[in-house]
Every structure is written in structure tokens, then in C-alpha cells.
Amino acid sequence: MEVTIERQSLALRAPLRTAFGEVRSRDLLLLRVRDEEGLEGVGEAAPLEAYDGVPSAVCEAALERHAEVLRAWDGAWGPAVVEACREAADLPQALAAVDLALWDRAGRRAGKPVAGVLAEDGQAPAVRVNATIGAQDAAGAAAEAATAARAGFRCVKVKVGVGDDARRVAAVRAAVGPEVALRLDANGAWEVDEAVRWIDVLSAAGLELVEEPVHGVAALRAVRERVPVRIAMDETAAQAGAIGSGAADAVVLKLGRAGGISALLAQAAYVKATGADVLLASTFDGPRGIAAAVHVAAALGLDAPCGLATLGLFEDASLADLLPVRDGQIAVPGAPGLGVAWP
């Protein structure tokens, strides 16, 4: 098995302000595997230190360990090889690249898109997505939201917990009108009492949900009990036992945090068993990470908009063309494997 690791850096067209800091670029790691028949699979690791605490260098070191396992592997391909990589270096962001590469290879071998391998009885042809509005000034946020609404987005998510949230959220609502669903994402910026106060104020804009208003299972549960707005868990989902805690109305799952497609499917089943909704989102991943999440969302038949329309945030406009958003949806790639090739 031939295995290579490549670095990529993608610049955002404008800085994205969030409660955990400003994002200006994304450093990615691509894992390419090629078997003796020449069949290739490509996976992507997308750590974001300010968000998940994983430096790119740490992720790359884990991938090097995984590459050694893959080169020496002579057993059955599938879960066993991923588990062997986990024993060598248990880092979900790096394991996600291994898992994606293997699913990409499996789809190409079967001549099917990954969604077709995951759900042979049929999968959704497209996935509904939300637009993401950074924590900027009210006028800029309103202009960006209006553009999204004109492009067909039926759901927008506004970053809060930074700056004048009340003016910005009101401006976005005025810009998109009453028919577009409005979500807020605080990235855990608030404490419980503060979150309750802010949600009470901002709910005048008409909110579908508030994502990660606070960090921690107990804090999320406390906020949920005191506000009429639906609460979604995101960063807290990384804590042991959190996704099955029932502390939120919805749980945001991410490929990198889960450790790839296989682990994310298991997490989704667990979340659904608790009665909570499943949402998929990216941490401003590259095209292969977004494609993989689209395949999973389609195979799961998710109806609620997912946070996967982020390729348009990058400076390189060709990235958005790989998985274009049309009328608030991303079509599932039809080519075998993950279905994207860049570069």
C-alpha cells in the first residue's frame, strides 16, 4: 500500500469572527492511499486548534503513525485497519482522514458514490444546508444574509457572543424576512444566567434554535430548562457521554471530532435513540470533508439544514464550484467514492 501525506492551506476571503477567535485560513492534511491495483482513496484531516485544541503538527504526527500502519497492513480492510491506526495514535481528527480515504477507496472499487454504499436502498439526492454569517457589524451581517436569502437559502446561522449581538441579529432578521429560519451560534461564549438573558432578548427575532450557548452538559440542560427556544449541542459533544445525555434538543456532529464516517454513523444512531435531532456541520473543512459529510447526511436522510455550506467562505472560488449550493441544497456527488477531486 502506497501512502502519502500532503499539506494544504486555504485562505478565507474574509476573516470570520467567532467567540473562540478569528479564523483567517484553514490548514488541512490530505492522506492518499493507493493499493497494488492502483485504486486510490483520499481522506482529509482538518484540525482547528482554536476550536478543538489540536495543533496541525500534532495531527500530522498522528497521521505519520497511521501511515506506517497502513503501509504494513496485510489484514482485511475496513474497521480492523482503522482500529489498528487508533491503537497507534488515538486522535479523532487524524483517524477521520484514514476513514475517509478508505471509504473513498471502497466507493471507487464498488463504482458507487459513498452515499450509495452507505444506503444501498436509496439516499436523498441533495442535502439542505444553512448559510453561516460571521460575527461582524450589523450592516455587513445583514448584507451577507440578504445575499444568502436571494441565493435560495432557507436557513441562516449567525455567530453571536461577540460584539453587538442584538443589533446584528435584528438586522439579519430584517434582511432575510420572516420565512427564513434563523439560528444563533454562541460557541459557548456565555454562562448560564447570561445565556438565558441573551436568548430572551434575541428571541424577539424569531429563532429556530441556539447552538452551544454554554459549554457542558449541566449548563446546557440548565439553559434548556429556562428558555422557550430549542437548544443544540456542539462543542460539548466532545465530552464523554454528552451526546447521549439528553441535555439538548439537537446535537451537532462533525466528522473530525467523531473520527470519520464510520464513527459518525454510530454517534448519529445514538443521538436519535435519545430523541434528539441530528445535525451535521463542518469546522470550515476542505472539499473532501464537506463531500463526506454530504454523503453521510444523505444516507441518514437528514431533513434539517446542515452547516455544510462553508466552501464559499474561501478565497479560492473554485472550491465552492466543487459542491455548489443551489436553492439552499448541495447535491450529493454522483461519481464513485467521495466524488470530488481537488487539487
Low-confidence segments, given as residue ranges, are none
What is the residue-averaged pLDDT? Answer: 94
Order of strands across the main sheet: 5-6-7-8-9-10-11
Helix content: 40-55%
Q: List the helices and strands in order.
A: EEEHHHHHEEHEHEHEHEEHHEHHEE
- Per DSSP, the total helix count is 13
Structural class: alpha/beta
- Give the radius of gyration: 19 Å
* Major sheet details: 7 strands, parallel
Textual characterization of the structure:
The protein is globular and about 60 Å long. Strand 1 and strand 2 form a beta hairpin. The protein is an alpha/beta fold. Helix 2 (56-72) packs across helix 4 (92-110) and helix 8 (192-202) packs parallel to helix 9 (217-226). It contains 13 helices and 13 strands. The strands form 3 sheets. A 7-stranded parallel beta sheet has the order 5-6-7-8-9-10-11. Strands 1-2-3 form a 3-stranded antiparallel beta sheet. Strands 4-13-12 form a 3-stranded antiparallel beta sheet.
Which terms summarize this structure?
343 residues; alpha/beta; seven-stranded parallel sheet; three-stranded antiparallel sheet; globular
SSE topology sketch:
Blueprint: E1 2-18, E2 21-34, E3 40-45, H1 49-52, H2 56-72, H3 79-88, H4 92-110, H5 114-118, E4 126-128, E5 131-133, H6 138-150, E6 155-159, H7 165-176, E7 181-185, H8 192-202, E8 209-211, H9 217-226, E9 230-233, E10 250-253, H10 255-258, H11 261-273, E11 277-280, H12 287-300, H13 317-322, E12 325-326, E13 329-331
Parallel strand pairs: 5-6, 6-7, 7-8, 8-9, 9-10, 10-11
Antiparallel strand pairs: 1-2, 2-3, 4-13, 12-13
Helix pairs in contact: 2-3, 2-4, 6-7, 8-9, 11-12
